[in-house]
Amino acid sequence: MTGLSSSPVAEDTPGNYGLGPRAAAVLVFGSSAAVLVVEIVALRLLAPYLGLTLETSTLVIGIALTAIALGSWMGGRIADQVEPRRLLGPSLGVSGAVVALTPAVLRSTAEWAPELLLLIASLTILVPGALLSAVTPIVTKLRLTSLAETGTVVGRLSGVGTAGAIAGTVLTGFVLVSRFPVSGILIGLGTLLVAGSALVEWRTRGWSGAPALALVVVAGGLATTVAPGACDTETRYHCARVVADPERDSGRTLVLDGLRHSYVDLDDPAFLEFAYVRAIASVVDAAFPEGEPLAAHHLGGGGLTFPRYLADTRPGTRSLVSEIDGGVVRIDRDQLGLRPGDGIDVRVEDGRLGLRRLETGSRDLVVGDAFGGVSVPWHLTTVEAMTDVRRVLDEDGLYVANLIDHGGMAFARAEVATLSETFEHVALVGEPADIGLDPTATPQGGNLVAIGSDRPVDVRATQEALDARQTGWKITSGDDLTTWIGDAQLLTDDYAPVDQLLEPYSPRSS
Predict the structure, then answer these.
(1) What is the torsional sign of CA 268, 229, 445, 58?
(2) 3-state SS of 236-262?
(3) Are 248 and 171 within one domain?
């Protein structure tokens, strides 16, 4: 059989093309790890534009698996036709250059040519993924020197590749993302790949094109500094910036993934810029006596606008906040003036898990504000989650939730239906067209505020509070709300397709 000897050959002899077992293991381990790093980081790059949804995750995983399959097949096929050692350097170097350019290219595409985003995103995953996946069959070809050891070589390298993929996954999820910016991770990975390419080229054929690829990596790093979509801080979950209000010296806007998430007035916590926050304040102020301190729990923190409001207007209020992103909490402390002694206790934790730790009947108020414009933590939407909210509320307690939806409002209807399954009394606040009170107008979507309680909701007092704050919003309940909900499905831990129900806002579709 051509290319194979029937007699054993020492592992580090020229018959192995100068590739020893350790070098082979390092190449396979490193390239497999790099594929998973690219896959996971790509999810974070795309989340600000496509949402961290089931569809986005499925898309990225599908492309990555396609790249692995294509690279393995083509790498093995080409290695049978071309001298394998000629392929290793280019595979590592070109993939490194593409990886280093990915942050600048994706963010620029999302801002300037969004219709091409899916295509460009697919290529930035497919190209390096296929080239890196081709390394394993190429190295296998180089290491196969005897038919007698075929199974051993293939099995060993396959196991090493799987171990590399596991290492890349764990390293990225638990270490890299929490310590480095996304762009830094990819530029660093690209640098390592090009360095590996240069080393392989030096040992096999001379330096060749490695310097040119290194220049591409440098260009990728420089391009990232000027590409749109940059942020002051890349947290574990968000690209975050704090923007000063040019019209209000003490005003600050927390921008997460390009969306205005929270507005905080450092000198006047009672100043509420966003209409939905004014609506939440109206609901709470109508439900509880003026100035009465509350025991509140907040699912989602962001800029902590509403906990600050409660601390200012209801002295003695104790607010416990479950915020999953520790990076956002650091921004609250370092840039948005959160101080000890404000009556606000922030815990870095998942909101659902935070609910479980609370005692039954321990809260007057639970505020849900963890939903974003393009993604929803589905496990906070279900009957089971709402049952836990109801458990921690006292008998006169109130649940108030900020919802975001557009178009047919399928998600919002399903969530209000779920609330109706859990609480005895439910109401909804929003723009009249969005909540069915103005049938002549086309719903535009955006923020809605849902209310759930086991005591009746004072509709008149709530509407008066909404009008006093000049929100322009209305409140609906009873039969009108039942008609608006229609036949919307309940959301449960077993079935909650919120990614499919949610219709994100898109200027191109309006």
Answers:
(1) negative
(2) CCCEEEEEECCCCCCEEEEEECCEEEE
(3) no
Cβ contacts of 242 within 8 Å, gap of 6 or more: 232, 252, 253, 254, 255, 331, 335, 336
Residue 322 has φ and ψ, to the nearest 5°, of: -100, 110
> Is residue 32 a contact partner of residue 131, using CB atoms and an 8 Å limit?
no
Q: Which residue in 197, 196, 184, 228 sits closest to 41, CA to CA? A: 184
* Residue finishing a domain among 228, 258, 287: 228
Same domain, yes or no: 191 and 104: yes
Residue 9 lies in a domain: no
Q: Residue 445 in contact with residue 409, Cβ under 8 Å?
A: yes
Task: Please report the DSSP string for 74-118 in residue order.
Answer: HHHHHHTTS-THHHHHHHHHHHHHHHHHHHHHHHHHHHH-GGGHH
φ and ψ of 130, to 5 deg? -70, -45
Mean pLDDT along residues 249-273: 92
* CATH number of domain containing 263: 3.40.50.150
- Please say which residue of 203, 228, 253 terminates a domain: 228
Can you give the C-alpha Rg of the chain in angstroms?
Answer: 28
pLDDT, residue 208, reads 56
Alpha-carbon 424 to chain mean position: 34
For 270, phi then psi, to 5°, come to: -80, -10
Q: Is the pLDDT of residue 10 over 60?
A: no
Cβ neighbours of residue 17 closer than 8 Å, sequence gap 6 or more: 84, 85, 142, 204
- What SS3 class is residue 329? helix
- Tokens, residue 482: 């039942």
Q: What are phi and psi of 363, to 5 degrees?
A: -125, 140
Mention every residue, 6+ apart, whose C-beta is less than 8 A from residue 485. Answer: 413, 416, 417, 420
Which residue type sits at 507? P
If asked whether residues 448 and 474 sit together in one domain, one would say: yes
Render pLDDT for 456-471 as a digit per residue (tens, 0 to 9).
Answer: 999 999 999 999 999 9
Q: How far apart are CA 308 and CA 315, in angstroms?
A: 10
Q: What is the pTM of this model?
A: 0.82
- Residue 156 structural domain: 14-228
